[in-house]
Amino acid sequence: MNYKESHTLILNNIARFIDLTELEKQKYLSLLTEIEVKKKTFLMQAGDITKYEYFITKGCLKVYTLDEDGAPHISMFAVEDYWAGDMASFMTKEPTRYFIQATEDSELLGISRANYELIFQEIPKFERFYRMLYQRSLVSYIRRSNYGISLTAEERYIAFKKKYPKIVNRITQKDLAGYIGITPEFMSKIISKVNRM
Amino acid sequence: MNYKESHTLILNNIARFIDLTELEKQKYLSLLTEIEVKKKTFLMQAGDITKYEYFITKGCLKVYTLDEDGAPHISMFAVEDYWAGDMASFMTKEPTRYFIQATEDSELLGISRANYELIFQEIPKFERFYRMLYQRSLVSYIRRSNYGISLTAEERYIAFKKKYPKIVNRITQKDLAGYIGITPEFMSKIISKVNRM
DNA sequence: TAAAAGTCTTAAACTAGTTCATTTTTTTTC
DNA sequence: GAAAAAAAATGAACTAGTTTAAGACTTTTA
What pTM does this model have? Predict the structure, then answer.
């Protein structure tokens, strides 16, 4: 069958781990909600009860918290083919501490909590899909959880550039500083130093 | 049925997320290997191909990497009722970068890669168990991945003490420094400062 | 149970990263 | 396309955390 671009993208993402029949694909797609967010608008703000988990089909968003001083700490940039959301709030129905804001006009597919639970009943293979998706994410978060304490800011910047060469050019230096965990001023210094090398 | 202590512990851990029949419990337990490690000995060293994932039934172990300067970065302390291992190496069969060393005489249950795959065929419910286990771990690693860059060393120490009050007293200050991501000297200063407050 | 090895404390000199203030450059908005 | 707003660059004074070194205390080992 012929699917629209965004649907092909999410089906391919899922096909990395499990095979679905045509019927299952259609069932799955019917459980998704299409969402558009214009640049600078929020998909989620601290205090919200998270209703969806998101798959990004177009654009770029930043996921961040604010500390007591109001400084943003960016935990990820989500671009095409990425999953984003606040799993803790999604699971527990407690208010989220996260903001998710579009840094470009973006398009997403959302799955609601009810449909997320439903999917495991309707297509049990999805337990396997999510088991493998989470297993992979876990590996990269375990690695990343050591970055902040074992690498200098310059090393973290170089690692980010190497791992996400396409994202570097789509975000501001200020947001990158918020991800690396330093001030924009020091980020500026590091970048000019690394470029000089 | 009556199980030995270590088996009761792991069955209870699993029962948090899925229900197993007597037969399934026995099948599952038959796939596990009992392992003993004496204090200071290694369960895993960098370069090894990880053969098992572990569940700790007694004792305490530290999981760490060494940086280029030979300084240890501890990623977790694993005590009773915890899962440990190097999932990346376990999955990809590439050599691990981790060391796992017992800080007390310890007892573990190990599941081999072959049996891990087998279990999903024999008892598909385990997809759900691992999906939920990983989902939970992910939530805490996502949170922790921001700790290193958004909290000061003193704040990280206070957070650790609050989250793991029982572990603090079982490990050396030096190992705690390796977890917090600072030198043992600065750890000493922080502890005496926090205790004075 | 004595010696050796490892852990903890303290302090002084140092470095990575912050803060604050100002100017230049780029992007957004009407 | 001009004005306003936001981002980036630069520099000087500051602070959190490191390094090195030495002595006191604790644990391990023979």
Answer: 0.91
Q: Is 90 exceeded by the pLDDT of residue B25? A: yes
B153 Cβ contacts chain D strand, under 7 Å: yes
Top residue of A86, A117, A134 to mutate, by most chain B CBs within 10 Å, is A134
* Closest of B43, B75, B53, B66 to residue B140, by C-alpha: B75
Tokens representing residue A81 in the block: 């083919």
- B173 CA – C11 C1', rounded, Å: 20
Q: Which residues of A19-52 are buried (b: 16+ CB within 10 A; e: fewer)?
A: ebeeebbeebbebbeebebeeeeebbeeebebbb
Nearest by CB to A138, from B73, B120, B134: name it. Answer: B134
Residue of B75, B127, B128 to mutate for A, most A C-beta atoms under 10 A: B127
Q: What CA–CA distances, in Å, run from B82 to A131, A143, A173, A190? A: 19, 19, 40, 40
A2 to chain B nearest CA, in Å? Answer: 31
Indicate if the pLDDT at residue A150 is higher than 80: yes
Q: Do B149 and A148 touch (CB under 8 A)?
A: yes
Domain A5-124 belongs to what topology?
Jelly Rolls (2.60.120)
Tell whether the model's pLDDT for residue A69 goes beyond 90: no
Is CATH 2.60.120.10 correct for B5-150? Answer: yes
Q: Mind listing the pLDDT tens digit for each residue in B130-183?
A: 999 999 999 988 888 888 888 999 999 999 999 999 999 999 999 999 999 999
Q: Could you state, in order of their start, the residue ranges of all structural domains in chain A?
A: 5-124
Q: Which of B15, B57, B9, B59 is nearest to B34 (CA)?
A: B57
The Cα A46–Cα A44 span in angstroms is: 7
Residues A5-20 have a mean pLDDT of 98
Q: Would you say B141 and A138 are in contact if contact means Cβ atoms under 8 Å apart?
A: yes
The whole-number pLDDT of residue B197 equals 66
Q: Does B18 touch chain A (CB under 8 A)?
A: no
What confidence tens digit (pLDDT) does each residue in B98-139 have?
999 999 999 999 999 999 999 999 999 999 999 999 999 999
Three-state DSSP at A121 gives helix
Q: Does B148 touch chain A (CB under 8 A)?
A: yes
